[in-house]
Every structure is written in structure tokens, then in C-alpha cells.
């Protein structure tokens, strides 16, 4: 049986971009200590209800067809329009994050595209965060190190996403000077079933603290999980307990409530 993404050709995906069918959704990131909005993670969705592909499938398809740069540029243009439209409802200092694969980070135009997006936002109001996904190893080359440094010099933070479950591991912390880690939902889910996940999360939090890195827990679905994370010093959280991913219209309603 073919994977869903393998049936999507480059023509299908390019047409979806040109027709405006690939749209941004936004999942709130919350400071659980104050219950205030800390940030928004930008996620990609295909607006057609009859498309039988998950976001993970679609990202894999764009990667496979070599269209990730085009998809990211398309998505970030829409995000800039949405954020400018909702600017009055959004707090100063909001962290605005988007995912980037190692293959994107390694491309020469990535810094330019990211800084172009940053320039389209209200000056100095938002903190932009690039979350490097764990699907592939991040090459330890001068070019990649230079990309990360250029982003950081422009006040763009770089995080490792889904830390500890894929290619983002302790070796990456030694090799790359990143600003933060996101604890994978698998560990957070494990808080409900035993002490092992709690021990792993505590170790990751301690590592982040020792390296002066931020730490965010994703996949938080219950109040018990949230409380346990707060007790470990992890107040910045994301998950269905707080909100699912929202369209622009839904985000506007969320912010106005």
C-alpha cells in the first residue's frame, strides 16, 4: 500500500499553494503559572476537507517533492498578514514559532526568508522562534552553525523540537548553541502512567537550566500533567488542555474572549 504522501505529486502540491489551499493554523502556548498567552506555534493545514492526508503526511510530501522552501514562504506570507490583522489583540513579547526541517536550515536562502518574514511584523513586538524538527540529523557544518548564529544575531531564537525522541539528542546540545528545547508529547503522556517519564523530563529540564536554555512541554492534555510539569519548573506548556490548533478566525475569537 502506498503512503498517503507518495500519491501527492509536485503538481498537486504546487497547485495547492497557488490556490491558497495550504493555510496556517495557530496553537497557543501558555504560561501555566499565570494562565496567560506566551506564544503561538504556526502549523500547516490543507483547507480542503476531502484531502485524506495528515499534516505529518503533507510535510513529508513537500519534503519528498523538494517544495518545502516554497511551502514555508507561502505559509509565512499568510502568517504575516494574519498577525498584522490581529496585532491589537496580541500581547507584546509574544513568541511566534514555526517548524523547519534540517534540510531547510541547511539551504542558503533560509536566513533571508526568515528575516524577510520578521521584517513584515510590527517592529520589536514579537519574538520569532525557529523550531528545528527531529526527523533528520542536523549536519554539524560551518554553514549550519553560521545559519544559527545569523538568526540569533537578528534576535531569532532557535529551539530543538520533540527533544529526545529523534535525531535531536544530547550530542546536538554539545554541537549547536540553541536557545531552547521542546519536550516531546510522548514523555508528557507518560506522566499519567509512571515515574520514568517524570525522571526523563526532570533531566531534560535540568539540562536546559544548566545550559541557560528555555524549555517548553508540548502535548499537555490534563490538569494533572500541567501541575506535575509546573512542579518541575516547566511553566511554559502547549496542548489540548489549553487549546487545539486554531484557524485565523478561531484565533481571533479566542483572543477576544
Automatic annotation (TrEMBL):
Q: Highest taxon of the source?
A: Bacteria
EAL domain spans which residues? 6-257
Coiled-coil ranges (or none) = none
InterPro entries from the entry?
A: Cyclic-di-GMP_PDE-like, EAL_dom, EAL_sf
Protein name listed in UniProt: Diguanylate phosphodiesterase
Give the organism, scientific name.
Lelliottia aquatilis
The organism's taxonomic lineage, starting at the top: Bacteria, Pseudomonadati, Pseudomonadota, Gammaproteobacteria, Enterobacterales
Amino acid at each position: 500500500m502506498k503512503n498517503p504522501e507518495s500519491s501527492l505529486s509536485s503538481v498537486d502540491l504546487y497547485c495547492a499553494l497557488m490556490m491558497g489551499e495550504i493555510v496556517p493554523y495557530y496553537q497557543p502556548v501558555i504560561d501555566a503559572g499565570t494562565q496567560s498567552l506566551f506564544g503561538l506555534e504556526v502549523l500547516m493545514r490543507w483547507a480542503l476537507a476531502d484531502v485524506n492526508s495528515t499534516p505529518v503526511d503533507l510535510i513529508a510530501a513537500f519534503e519528498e517533492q523538494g517544495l518545502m522552501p516554497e511551502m514555508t514562504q507561502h505559509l509565512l506570507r499568510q502568517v504575516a498578514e494574519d498577525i498584522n490583522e490581529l496585532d491589537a489583540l496580541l500581547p507584546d513579547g509574544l513568541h511566534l514559532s514555526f517548524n523547519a526541517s534540517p534540510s531547510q536550515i541547511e539551504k542558503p536562502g533560509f536566513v533571508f526568508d526568515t528575516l524577510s518574514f520578521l521584517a513584515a511584523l510590527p517592529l520589536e513586538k514579537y519574538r520569532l522562534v525557529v523550531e528545528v524538527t527531529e526527523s533528520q540529523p542536523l549536519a554539524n557544518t560551518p554553514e549550519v552553525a553560521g545559519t544559527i548564529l545569523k538568526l540569533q544575531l537578528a534576535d531569532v531564537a532557535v529551539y530543538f523540537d520533540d527533544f529526545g525522541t529523534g535525531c535531536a539528542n544530547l550530542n546536538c546540545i554539545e554541537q549547536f548553541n540553541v536557545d531552547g528545547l521542546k519536550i516531546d508529547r510522548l514523555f508528557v503522556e507518560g506522566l499519567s502512567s509512571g515515574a520514568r517519564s517524570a525522571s526523563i523530563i526532570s533531566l531534560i529540564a535540568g539540562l536546559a537550566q544548566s545550559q541557560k536554555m528555555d524549555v517548553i512541554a508540548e502535548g499537555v492534555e490534563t490538569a494533572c500533567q500541567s501541575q506535575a510539569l509546573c512542579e518541575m519548573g516547566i511553566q511554559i506548556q502547549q496542548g489540548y488542555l489549553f487549546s487545539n490548533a486554531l484557524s485565523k478566525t478561531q484565533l481571533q475569537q479566542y483572543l477576544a474572549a
